[in-house]
Amino acid sequence: MDLRQDALQILKETSRTFYIPISILPSGLQEAVASAYLCMRAIDEIEDHPELDNQTKAQLLRTISLTLQAGVDGFAVDAFSSGFSGYENTLAEVTLGIREWSILAPESIAPRIWDATAAMADRMAYWAEQNWQIRTESDLDRYTFGVAGAVGLLLSDLWAWYDSTETNRTQAIGFGRGLQAVNILRNHAEDLKRGVDFYPEGWTAANMHEYARRNLALADAYTKHLPPGPALDFCQIPLTLAHGTLDALANGKEKLSRTDVLALLKKFIDVNMKAS
């Protein structure tokens, strides 16, 4: 099996936002970013799973975290599957494949990805046990840091590892938080149906829009200061889609249409595909 091609195929099936920016990254960095994305998508699918109760989610997430913390030079074939016993037919394919995604990255950076995923899994477990109760803006900041701002920090580490690109870490957190805030706005009605509300008490959509734009301003600054190269190529695409989605929501749309997405990406795709 070609693990890289398998990873890209799963990525294509799970994310229209990140498939293109990851697919155009150079060899080595591509495997590292794909590994990070798929490992985190694996645990995200547990957090959002419609059939699992919160305690089961917390248990599965903590088991994954402990397994990742035990990594040395990779993981035994059954390292993760033993913790999934009884849930093999319930969990998503990307979750069941977490061992493969964890060993996809180059050996010199893989442990950083294990560390970030383990920490995120622990934080997700905490929020599952709290039923994602967001009462204050500080709660919202904690949640958006835990599941997204920390991803911005990991990306900064990956850029530095690959070609010594330096970044502003506060802006990196804003990059992650901004994208997550847009997701919260886009999925608000759906989240309410499952009994979860990520809006702090008393907040309206207007408050969340302001929160998202404030963090996207940090994301803009983060991207603006990136030198030409793979980090900039990667970050421009999800940031463009986030701004486009926020504008669409402000204008009363539920989300960006496929046509909208393609129109926003058109100015990047041709150039980036030639460079891949």
Description:
By secondary structure, this protein is an all-alpha fold. It has helices spanning 3-14, 19-23, 29-47, 54-69, 93-96, 98-102, 110-129, 137-163, 169-186, 188-193, 205-224, 230-250, 258-275. The radius of gyration is 18 Å and the shape is globular. It starts with a helix and ends with a helix. The model has no long low-confidence stretch (mean pLDDT 92).
Descriptive terms for the model:
276 residues; mainly alpha; globular
Summary, kept brief:
With 276 residues, the protein is mostly helical.
Rg: 18 Å
What class do helices, strands and sheet pairing give? mainly alpha
Mean pLDDT figure: 92
Question: Could you give the count of β-strands?
Answer: 0
Please state roughly what percent of the residues sit in beta strands, choosing from under 5%, 5-15%, 15-25%, 25-35%, 35-45% or over 45%: under 5%
Instruction: Sketch the topology as an H/E string, one letter per element.
Output: HHHHHHHHHHHHH
Give me the number of helical elements.
Answer: 13
Q: What is the general shape?
A: globular
- How far is the first residue's CA from the last residue's CA? 22 Å
Uncertain parts: none
Biggest sheet features: none
Helix content: 55-70%
